[in-house]
Amino acid sequence: MPLLTTPADLAELIAAEDAVRVLDVRWRLDAPDGRIAYRAGHIPGAVYVDLDHELSTHGAPQDGRHPVPDRDTLQAAARRWGVSNGDTVVVYDDAGSVAAARAWWLLSRSGITDVRVIDGGLRAWTGDGRALEEGQVVPVPGDVDLEPLLPGLDIDEAAAWPENGVLLDVRAPERYRGETEPMDPVAGHIPGAVNLPTPSFTDAGRFRSPDELRAAFAGAGARDDVPVAAYCGSGIAASHAALAGALAGIEVTVYPGSWSQWSQTPGRPVATGAEPHGGAPA
């Protein structure tokens, strides 16, 4: 199944009345609730997805800011979105497909075999001259049966990963180096992690070609013959890295707890500076 789709391909699916469910996953750190933007204009038929409360759960601080939901929680949400068994699910956002990738990662690892991301998101749709609709779509509930979510790394596995593989930190370089930390209580990175910022995977909001993506991963030491994992601030952008890896033919395992869990867990070591194990370049 394709991982990405275009506005034209989606329009054809909708026109053919195929079993397709479109999900609007607008979310950003500076605008976590995308409902107002969604109601002002969305792809016709798209259902709004609340990333903070439907694609995440919440518990103790040491669980991180966006722990993954359990199977029952995600299944209840997917049924509310109108997803049924056998549907093609198409997801999008308005910020480089980072939030959409979280939906792709969760749903594709829960047994839905055809989950696609609109490459370029909402801007690609409107840039193609296609109309939006206002208001809120309330679909007939679906009947999808999800499988238990295939887990990512836990905190101990993330700590050990650099011993035998490449652990990618996809946050901004200044956060990786520990120069600033706007979200979490401690600045720095997991010892042994290599910085490969999220913008490395896209160009003008669209994913780079598979060859370009492979080159970006290879520049950080991540190749298909080396185990690769990724983390970010709270597990959202790490899903985007997993999607980029899938497009490049590289399996990228996600550490969902990411820095928000690591920095809230007492006793976990912290590296700072530009080098994986800390310190500035020689």
UniProtKB/TrEMBL annotation:
The keyword Acetylation does not apply. It comes from the Bacteria. Residues 16-134, 163-271 form the Rhodanese domain. One of its GO terms (molecular function) is thiosulfate-cyanide sulfurtransferase activity. The keyword Transmembrane helix does not apply. Its EC number is 2.8.1.1. Residues 261-282 are annotated as: Disordered. Keywords: Repeat, Transferase. It is an enzyme of class 2 (transferase). Pfam families: Rhodanese. This is Thiosulfate sulfurtransferase SseB. It comes from Microbacterium lemovicicum.
